[in-house]
Each structure stands twice: as structure tokens, then as C-alpha cells.
Design goal:
The structure holds two protein chains of two kinds. By secondary structure, chain A is α+β, with helices and mostly antiparallel strands. Chain A is 39% helix and 19% strand. By secondary structure, chain B is mainly alpha-helical. Classes of the chains: A alpha+beta, B mainly alpha.
């Protein structure tokens, strides 16, 4: 033993040992990096338009189908007369924006799930059988969270108006329906592409207004202003009093109530239920700018949203240098403030879900053509936007909007809804306004959250609330 | 049917490859060639199993019967090399020759898939290189006077790469070549061997700091000429050989640190000075930012590596041809794409095993000159492998060097085979040393 030990101890050359170990370690590091990089970036790299391997897969596989939550086919491919695959959309324009397209660039679910749709996970024996028939392999199918019934009701409810509707489940973040109008016929998009792009009118048919349309939030923004007020006055917000005389001025700045109404003596909840602009301008002016600004940050204004579809960033900001007039405008969701229907839906969902925002998602799983599950997505919470207590207070206030305020058309139904209307003025020279409604039901156990904007329609109470009623009715099965 | 063949052969190939790599590391457990005999036999079996599975896949996918003859010739040549080597040089290290053959075989398979004409050309070069290479160990063993030409090697080296710098025409922006009778020849590859002999000689003889300084100066001249020729990869390889040998020879880590310091300094200066260096670094940091031009190669290489998955798309299943210069600089990406990341990683591990065996031989030989020569070959081989694999996978900036033995390129294959054979010559000298030591011990006892 002793002898052997001595023999082993003598190192002839340290540098050789060190260099050997160094390069061996370097290679381990590099090869580990390559394995990780190629594994984690596979999908991103495959989606790159410079990657010619997409064409190889498309030659070999037939793009998979997009399915609704209960298995209805929303998009599928079949062999065309000239041997090329043709994409079919059985529901036509109804799902145009959310399902999207994949010619001349990609959009919607067609873009999100592209990697899976062009790959196949069927068994080897099935592949061999298809080979002998000379047919392509079926790509994997994408199962979505979309509900055909709700989408249909939403689509029809918006009728010929421009606007957008987002329906989600606030408990899970599932997107149940998403409509944007004006729309396009997805099957004809290739033929109509040039005219769609050339159209410089305000139609912007390719724009998914639900996630990309930026609108003044109008009175729906009072949810945000209220939250800031509750934060600053957690104990005594109920003691708030204001007497509305139809308008409110500080210095030369003046805010009027909608259509010159006068609301009289109001407390905090009533100001919200009646959507009194004067009262909220008063609240906004009195708010600590810091608290207001922090609330905007927490509610993700000007921030990245956890949304996979293409979206626009909402904007609303306030700081010490903001003028009084701008603060008054901000408090009632006018001025430079803008929001997407999706973002407003997320804020409403967070209120409904006790303050916690669930990450919105539209793809619930990938399933191979022969039914094997390839990948499944489960709900995940994204971020707490407010405390459970604050969410409770806001829910109560939104119930009052239905019970005794601007959304009274939702009163006395089999379910208790909660929500906020808005009539956002977008043109200073006229009294035209976008009709907003955002809300959820049932108030004590929210299952569905709806956000609606109807462009240039009039007041939210008259034009958006009835649409919400139709969607809620459809969901709860009341006719 | 064809589909079954190609799908199953993927797993068969990976299985035998794994066995091969396992054996090539297991070899280090035994100290003598005699004890490793069983391992070598196992390696050769795995080697041909991998090769035949690849052939079957190629023929099943391409349907070209002519490939059958080509493969038959390849098998004959490799069997011949392996048999002949062990009978001519029984004292040689067979792990190194097995690994060399394995890497060449993988290269031939991939080249056949990429471009049959080039594969045939490569095949003739490999055959010729072995014919030349077979004399090398004997030359190293017999002609000890080769040790003496130290400064002549440096002079010839500097003159030949200097001549290319002055007269040569630039191809691809960075590769500088002589074209002689239709055969393009990369002098920087061949000068690498001269440089190894020069460094080994100069470092063995260096008695004082001045001699070290002059040797360093001569090395610096080589590197600077290569940088000016825009051959950054070769410049780096020469520099790393220099660093490794000065460290091994002096056993003073201070020189290594000093050398590294100058290396970093020179890199910073060349980054500031040369726009082509800046372009390379930019393309490395964000290949997708300028995907249409400077980032194109690297992006395509990354697409290739990532699209194969663990087991690859199968030969002819991907589109490695979309990577520019795939058969030279990006053969690793092509292999990862079609034969899978597992296979590509295992192949890189064969390179590591070869490197460790070369260093192991250098470690045990007593003669300083041959120790430096052997370690120089080892470091040059592994560093070049590192540059090309790392460059193609965004681990380090791209320098555009070949993957030794696997990539297409006549000079590179010839030079690497000769370098491996130099190590075999060193192995013979080591066996001789051991034999002499045994004789002395016997005499003392007697």
C-alpha cells in the first residue's frame, strides 16, 4: 500500500494535467450549452421566417386543425385540387381575428401554435400506412379555450357595429370568446390581401381591436381611480361626500357630467354607480400623485402584458408635473389615457378573482391527430394587482352599478352581475362616444368576465350593457 | 418500410455510438496497450456498426445503388488502415488511430449526404493522407536530427504564410489559399506542423529569458501575419499552441498569465482596428439582429442544430444545405440536424477522448522535446475543435475553421492525419524509453 501511494503521488507535469482538465471542462460546458440551447429554443427558431425547415415540414405534414374547447373545428387543412393544401375556416368571419391566418405573415392562434400545427406526433406505424397511400402526415391539433356558443352570441350581438368583445374566465384566465369588427373572411385573405392593406379608412380590418385597439377608457377608468382612492383612504373612503351640480372646475379647467346631468348629493359608492364625472374629477385632484401613479403601475399601464397574441400597450400616467386639468381628465379616463379591451378585461378579471390576475391564455393543449396529448397548458396566476379586500370593495361598488346605477339593464336576473359602464368621448368637437361595459357574473362567484366596446354608439348603459346581457344569458343558459 | 429502416437506424446508430464513446473513455482505465486490446476490438465493432447503419439509412433514403460501391471502398480502406497500422506499429497507440478513423467515417457519411462529388474527392485525399501518414511515425522515430532545425522551421513558416499575405488572393474574405494544379492548398494548415516543431525545439533549448523572448517574438510574427491575412481562426490556434507550450515547458503559470494578458490586449486592439472582427462579434452577440447579412450563417447554423432534436431528422431529412459553407465550417450543425444532438455531442466527446490520450502520451514520455510536440498536437487539435463547434453554436464568436477530420477540406485532413501520426511516432519513442529503462534495471540486477 505504502509503496503504491508513493508511486502515485509524483506528478510529472502539472501544466499537462491542468490543460487536460481545463479543456475537458470547457467541452462539458460547451456541449451542455448546446444541448440546452437547442432544446429550449427549438420552437422560437423554427418560427423564424428565415428558417427553411418550415417548408420541409409542410411538404411532409398537413397542418393540424384548430379546435374549440369542445372539439368543434375552427380551422383545418385539406388537399386542394392542385395538390396544394388549402386552409378552411368553417365559421368564416366569426373567429377571424382570434384564430388568425398564416399567409403573408401570421397572426392569431395560427401564429401561436404554428410550430405544433406543422409538426406531427402520430405513431410510426400510422406514418408508414400513410406513406404507402402517398398521403401527408396529419399535423398536431391545437385545442383552444374558445367557446363556439359565446363567440357566436358575441359576434351577432356586435352586429354591424365596429368594436370588440373579450370574454374570459377570471378564475383561470381562459379566453372564452374574442370578437373584433370590422373583420375579414379568413379563407379569402390571400386574394384580398392587397386591398386589405390598401384600405386606408378607419376600418383597419386586419387589426384585432380586442388586443390591439387603443381606446379612451372613459368612465370604466373610474375603477382605477377608485382603487387609488381606496388605497389612500383605506379606513374612511366611505365618508366621502360630494354635491354634483353638473360640472366641476379648478382654475380654468372644467369637467362636465355626461350629457349635462346633475347628480346632487353623492357618497363614494354612489359617485361610482352614477358615474359622476364631477365627483371623480374632484377625487382625482385630491389624490396623492404618488399613490395614483403606483396604482397605474400595478395595473400594468404602459407595461408588458402577459398576453401571447399581438397587443398594444395601454397608456396612462401621472406624476408631480402633471397639470391639474390633465389629472382631472385622467380621473375620468379621458385625455391622453388609452387602454385595450383586453387590458381592461384583465383588470376586471383581477377584481373578480380577489385581486389576483390569472395569465390569459387561449391554447389549452396540443393533441396529436391520433389523440395523444403532446402538450397541455394549465392556468397560472400572473400577479396580484390589488389586495383581496380592495377587490371586495370594488366588487361591491360594481354590483351597485347594476343595482342602482348605469347598468340597471342587468338588474333582476337569475344571476347577479357586477360591472362598470363607460361612454368615452373621442372627439372633442362633438358628443359622439364609444360605449363601454366591463363586468362579471355571478358577483359572489365569478365565472365569466366580459368587456365590450362599441365604437361611436353612444352611452355604455344603452349600447354595451345589452350586449353583456346577451352574453351572460347565453352563458348561464337563461333565455 | 423505408420509414421503419430510417427511424430504427437512428436509435441503432446512437446506441453503437454511445458504446464506442464509452469504450474510448474506458481505455484510460488500463495503462498498457496490451490490456486495452479488448476495448479496441469492441471499438472497431461499434465503428463499423455505426458506419453500416448510416449507409443503410443513406441508401434507403436516397435509393442510389452507386453509393453501395462507394461504401464498400470506404470499408476496405478503413479495415486496411486499422489492420496495417496495428501490424506495422504494434507500439503505436490504437485509441488515437481508432478515433481518427471514426471521425473520418462520420465525416464521409455526412459529406456523402451533402455532396457526393466532394465526398469522393475527400475519400481520395483521405486515402492519400494515410499513405503519406504511414511513413510519419517511422520518420519521427528514426530521424532524431529533425529536432535540430528549430529556426529553419520558423523561417520557412513565416516565409510561406508571409508570401500568401503579400501575393495570395482572398477567397471568402478570410480564407487564404494557394492554388496549385487545381488543388487549393491552405498554407496556414501546413505551417501549423512546422510551427509545432519550431516551438518544441525552441522551448526545449530555451535556457534563459532571452531565448524565451526570441521564441515568443517568432511566434508573435506568425500570429500577426495570420491576423493581417484575416485568418483569425488560425491566428488563435497558433497563439494557443504557443501559450500551452511555454506553460508546459517552463511550468510557470506566470508566463501563461502574461501570455493571456497580451492575448486579451491584442484582441481588444484588433476589435478596434478591424471592422471584420467587429462584424463577427456583433453577429455572435445577436445573430438574428442582422439575419439577412452578417448574422445569416450563424442563424442558419442555429436553425440546423435546433431542428434536429435529440435523435435528429435522419439523413436527408433536414436542410443542412441552407447553411453556407456547411461542409467546411458548419459540419457539426449538419450532423446535429440530421443525426441528432446526442450523436453530435458524442462525436465531440470522441475528440475530447483523442485529446486526452494525446496529452496522456505526452505526460508519460521523458524526452522534453517529444513531450512538447505531442502536447502541442493535442492542444492544437482540441482548440480547433472548440473553435468550430463553439463558433457554430453561438458559444463563442465564429472564426471559420474546419472541424478536424470531419470537415471537407484536403489540407485540413492531410495535416490532421499527419499530426496524429506524429503522436504515434512519439508513442513509439515512449515505448522505446520504457524498454531501455527495463534493460537498465535488468543490467543493474544482473
Amino acid at each position: 500500500m505504502q509503496r503504491e501511494g508513493n508511486k502515485k503521488k509524483r506528478i510529472r507535469s502539472y501544466p499537462i494535467v491542468i490543460l487536460s482538465v481545463f479543456y475537458a471542462a470547457l467541452f462539458c460546458l460547451m456541449l451542455g450549452y448546446i444541448a440546452c440551447y437547442s432544446y429550449t429554443n427549438r420552437q422560437v427558431l423554427m418560427d423564424n421566417s428565415y428558417n427553411t425547415r418550415q417548408q420541409i415540414l409542410l411538404k411532409q405534414n398537413r397542418r393540424g386543425s384548430i379546435l374549440s374547447r369542445d372539439g368543434e373545428v375552427l380551422a383545418y387543412s385539406e388537399a386542394g385540387d392542385d395538390g396544394k393544401d388549402v386552409r378552411r375556416y368553417p365559421y368564416g368571419k366569426e373567429f377571424a381575428h382570434v384564430v388568425g391566418y398564416s399567409v403573408n405573415g401570421k397572426a392569431g392562434i395560427e401564429s401561436l401554435a404554428y410550430y405544433y400545427l406543422i409538426n406531427t406526433s402520430i405513431d410510426l406505424s400510422d406514418k408508414v400506412a400513410l406513406d404507402t397511400k402517398g398521403d401527408k402526415y396529419p399535423g398536431d391539433n391545437c385545442v383552444t379555450t374558445l367557446d363556439v356558443n359565446l363567440q357566436e352570441v358575441s359576434y351577432n350581438a356586435l352586429s354591424a357595429r365596429k368594436g370588440a368583445i373579450v370574454v374570459t374566465n377570471p378564475r383561470t384566465g381562459e379566453i372564452l370568446a374574442m370578437v373584433s369588427k370590422p373583420d375579414f373572411e379568413p379563407a379569402n385573405i390571400e386574394a384580398e390581401w392587397d386591398s386589405l392593406l390598401a384600405d386606408k379608412s378607419t376600418d383597419a380590418k386586419l387589426l384585432n381591436r380586442a388586443t390591439q385597439g387603443l381606446y379612451p377608457p372613459g368612465s370604466t377608468f373610474k375603477i382605477v381611480t377608485s382603487l387609488a382612492y381606496i388605497k389612500e383612504h383605506p379606513q374612511d373612503f366611505e365618508n366621502y361626500r360630494f354635491t354634483c351640480s353638473g360640472n366641476f372646475s379648478v382654475d380654468d379647467e372644467r369637467i362636465s357630467c355626461y350629457h349635462g346631468e346633475t347628480h346632487g348629493s353623492l357618497d363614494f359608492t354612489k359617485s361610482f354607480a352614477k358615474s359622476c364625472n364631477s365627483s371623480f374629477a374632484n377625487i382625482g385632484v385630491g389624490l396623492s400623485r404618488k399613490v395614483f401613479s403606483r396604482t397605474l403601475d400595478q395595473l400594468l399601464f404602459g407595461k408588458e402584458l402577459p398576453v401571447d397574441l399581438l397587443y398594444s400597450k395601454s397608456s396612462a400616467s401621472v406624476d408631480e408635473s402633471t397639470s391639474v386639468g390633465d389629472v382631472m381628465q385622467l380621473s375620468i379616463g379621458q385625455g391622453a389615457t388609452s387602454i385595450t379591451p383586453m387590458h381592461l378585461n384583465m383588470i376586471t378579471s383581477a377584481v373578480a378573482n380577489g385581486g389576483m390576475l390569472m395569465k390569459p391564455y387561449v391554447i389549452s393543449g396540443i393533441v396529436s391527430a391520433d389523440g395523444k396529448s403532446v402538450k397541455s397548458y394549465s392556468p397560472g396566476s400572473y400577479k396580484r394587482l390589488m389586495s383581496a379586500q380592495q377587490a371586495d370593495i370594488l366588487t361591491g361598488m360594481m354590483v351597485d352599478v347594476v343595482e342602482s346605477g348605469t347598468a340597471s339593464r342587468l338588474k333582476g336576473l337569475s344571476y347577479t352581475a357586477a360591472g362598470k359602464t363607460g361612454s368615452a368621448e373621442f372627439n372633442t368637437s362633438s358628443s359622439d362616444s364609444h360605449a363601454w361595459f366591463t363586468g362579471f357574473a355571478p358577483a359572489d362567484d365569478p365565472q365569466i368576465c366580459v368587456t365590450i366596446i362599441v365604437e361611436n354608439a353612444g352611452s355604455g348603459g344603452s349600447f354595451a350593457v345589452p350586449i353583456a346581457k346577451r352574453i351572460f344569458d347565453a352563458y348561464f343558459g337563461a333565455e | 418500410m423505408e420509414l421503419y429502416v430510417t427511424e430504427i437506424s437512428k436509435y441503432v446508430i446512437d446506441f453503437f455510438m454511445l458504446c464506442y464513446v464509452g469504450l474510448s473513455f474506458l481505455a484510460f482505465k488500463y495503462s498498457t496497450e496490451k490490456k486495452r486490446k479488448g476495448i479496441y476490438m469492441g471499438q472497431i465493432l461499434c465503428m463499423f456498426a455505426v458506419q453500416i447503419s448510416c449507409f443503410i439509412q443513406i441508401i434507403a433514403r436516397s435509393g442510389e445503388a452507386v453509393y453501395l460501391f462507394f461504401f464498400a471502398f470506404q470499408i476496405i480502406i478503413f479495415v486496411f488502415v486499422l489492420l496495417l497500422f496495428s501490424s506495422i506499429y504494434p507500439e503505436g497507440n490504437r485509441l488515437i488511430i481508432n478515433n481518427t478513423c471514426m471521425l473520418l467515417m462520420i465525416g464521409m457519411v455526412m459529406l456523402t449526404r451533402l455532396s457526393y462529388d466532394r465526398a469522393v474527392k475527400q475519400f481520395f485525399i483521405v486515402t492519400a493522407s494515410f499513405v503519406i501518414g504511414f511513413f510519419v511515425p517511422e520518420i519521427i522515430f528514426r530521424f532524431e536530427f529533425l529536432k535540430k532545425f528549430t529556426w529553419i522551421y520558423a523561417a520557412v513558416g513565416v516565409v510561406s504564410i508571409g508570401a500568401v499575405l503579400i501575393y495570395g488572393a482572398a477567397t471568402n474574405g478570410s480564407k487564404i489559399t494557394y492554388t496549385l494544379a487545381g488543388i487549393t492548398f491552405q498554407p496556414s494548415e501546413a505551417v501549423k506542423i512546422l510551427f509545432l516543431f519550431f516551438m518544441a525545439g525552441a522551448m526545449t533549448k530555451a535556457r534563459n529569458i532571452w531565448q524565451l523572448f526570441f521564441a515568443s517574438l517568432a511566434a508573435a510574427v506568425h500570429v500577426i501575419i495570420l491576423v493581417l491575412s484575416k485568418d483569425l481562426g488560425s491566428a488563435l490556434i497558433f497563439f494557443v499552441i504557443y501559450l500551452a507550450l511555454i506553460y508546459i515547458s517552463t511550468e510557470n503559470i506566470g508566463y501563461l498569465a502574461l501570455g493571456l494578458f497580451f492575448g486579451v490586449l491584442a484582441s481588444v486592439i484588433s476589435y478596434r482596428l478591424f471592422s471584420h472582427v467587429r462584424v463577427r462579434v456583433q453577429a455572435w452577440l445577436d445573430p438574428f439582429g442582422d439575419i439577412a447579412s452578417s448574422g445569416y450563417q450563424l442563424s442558419q447554423s442555429l436553425f440546423g442544430i435546433s431542428s434536429g432534436g435529440w435523435f435528429g431528422l435522419g439523413l436527408y431529412g433536414g436542410s443542412p444545405r441552407s447553411i453556407p459553407y456547411v461542409e467546411r465550417d458548419f459540419i457539426f450543425s449538419a450532423i446535429a440536424e440530421e443525426m441528432g444532438v446526442i450523436f453530435a455531442v458524442l462525436m465531440a466527446l470522441i475528440c475530447v477522448s483523442t485529446f486526452l490520450m494525446i496529452m496522456y502520451e505526452g505526460y508519460f514520455i521523458k524526452d522534453r522535446y517529444y513531450r512538447l510536440l505531442s502536447c502541442g498536437v493535442g492542444v492544437s487539435f482540441i482548440f480547433q475543435t472548440f473553435l468550430t463547434i463553439g463558433g457554430g453554436s453561438k458559444f463563442i464568436p465564429l472564426t471559420g475553421v474546419t472541424l478536424p477530420l470531419v470537415s471537407y477540406g484536403g489540407t485540413s485532413v492531410l495535416v490532421t492525419i499527419v499530426m496524429m501520426m506524429i503522436v504515434e511516432g512519439v508513442c513509439m519513442i515512449r515505448t522505446d524509453e520504457r524498454f531501455e529503462a527495463m534493460e537498465r534495471r535488468k543490467k543493474r540486477k544482473g
